[in-house]
Amino acid sequence: MSINSRDQFLLKGRPEIPSIQNTAKTLDHEVFQNKVLRPILKLQNTIFVSLFLDELRRKKQDFTTFNSEEKHKAIKRHLNTNSSLKQRFLGIVIGLFTNAEMDYYQLHMSAINKRIFSMLKIRLEHQLI
Q1: Residue 53: inside a domain, yes or no?
Q2: Residue 65 gets which letter from DSSP?
Q3: Please, are residues 25 and 101 in contact by the beta-carbon 8 Å criterion?
Q4: What's the sign of the alpha-carbon dihedral 12, 15, 19, 22?
Q5: Domain that holds residue 63
Q6: pTM of the full predicted structure?
Q7: Number of domains in the chain
Q8: Which of 32, 63, 81, 114 has its CA 20 to 30 A from that of 24?
């Protein structure tokens, strides 16, 4: 598979998010978040939830017995301190970047990673609480 066909394949598989509106004033990182990260996170949502719940199961934590506050704390704690889980989440996102997106990511890795984990935290909270 050539680079162009791989990129085209990846782009075709991403869900459309009609509520996204970028303007001329939208910052580059925001455009990347809206055009790349949000669709990928939406596409991979069930994988993220499954991995998170499996991680809790492995740590012998019964998430279903947690109240809302405990669930918030567990999500935040795992996304802040569990480097193994964070790396798996990043791999799931980064693996779906096109070549151009990977180039942009490598130039702005720290800022993009912050956006990924911020969005992922919100997504997990909405799904699990």
Answers
A1: yes
A2: G
A3: no
A4: negative
A5: 27-128
A6: 0.93
A7: 1
A8: 114
